[in-house]
Design goal:
By secondary structure, the protein is α/β, with parallel strands linked by helices. The chain has one domain: CNF1/YfiH-like putative cysteine hydrolases. About 20% of the residues lie in helices and about 30% in strands. The strands form 3 sheets. The protein has a 6-stranded mixed β-sheet. It has a 5-stranded mixed β-sheet with strand order 1-14-6-2-4. Strands 10-12-11 form a 3-stranded antiparallel β-sheet, with no helix packed on it. β11 and β12 form a beta hairpin.
């Protein structure tokens, strides 16, 4: 999916609505992802928190929205349906991970916590490639006045209705750039999960009944 990752041994995949429909999958069953060894899955049990972890051991992590590893056998996975899947891949080391970032995670500082985790692991920010996958875009992410103060003023476009459109991808990009990641190595999918009904699930569009898509990053070693 993402051709600009320098590290040819790290692979990103995004299993969209199309994948689930084409394979007649009604609900997420991780055993269906047969190209990966299930016993190596590292999965956060997402709660829209700012919690991320580094682990070289597989498992499911409670109250967590991002996982990182330096174990090339580990398969990092998240679920999304409008929120941003943000993938991180070192350009030449076995170090990679993925976070689940919606507006709540952004406002709570999940990207700042990600930068702290990388520093703790002695990772240089200019050696990381970042990919922000398909998610709800500025054309469709609408909020009311009651939460508008959660967003930077430059990310907001007011509407005549009294509501506001917010550019979450721009917020993420600027935060990543501000803490020191190379803006030339941050790539953003232009696909809107809300707009493209045939391709993506969307919680905002379909409500509680919607399913989830899967983002995966792992090593091909």
């Amino acid at each position: 999916m993402f051709q600009n990752i320098r590290n040819s041994l790290i692979n990103i995949k995004f299993f969209s609505k199309k994948f689930f429909i084409q394979n007649n999958i009604d609900k997420i069953d991780f055993s269906l992802f047969k190209e990966y060894d299930q016993k190596h899955f590292l999965i956060p049990n997402q709660t829209h928190s700012n919690n991320i972890i580094f682990s070289n051991n597989p498992g499911q992590i409670d109250n967590c929205d991002g996982v990182f590893t330096s174990n090339p056998k580990i398969v990092c996975m998240i679920k999304v349906a409008d929120c941003m899947p943000i993938f991180f891949a070192h350009q030449y080391k076995f170090f990679y991970g993925v976070i689940h970032a919606g507006w709540k995670g952004l406002s709570k500082g999940i990207l700042k916590n990600t930068s702290i985790l990388l520093k703790e692991n002695k990772i240089k920010f200019n050696e990381i490639d970042i990919y922000i996958g398909p998610s709800i875009q500025k054309c469709c992410f609408e909020v009311s006045r009651d939460i508008i103060d959660q967003f930077p003023f430059w990310s907001i476009r007011p509407k005549k209705s009294g509501k506001f459109m917010v550019n979450l991808q721009k917020i993420a990009f600027e935060e990543l750039r501000f803490v020191g990641f190379d803006e030339k190595r941050i790539k953003i999918s232009s696909d809107c999960s809300f707009c493209k009904n045939n391709n993506y699930y969307s919680y905002r569009r379909d409500g509680d009944k919607t399913r989830r898509m899967i983002g995966v990053i792992t090593s091909e070693a």
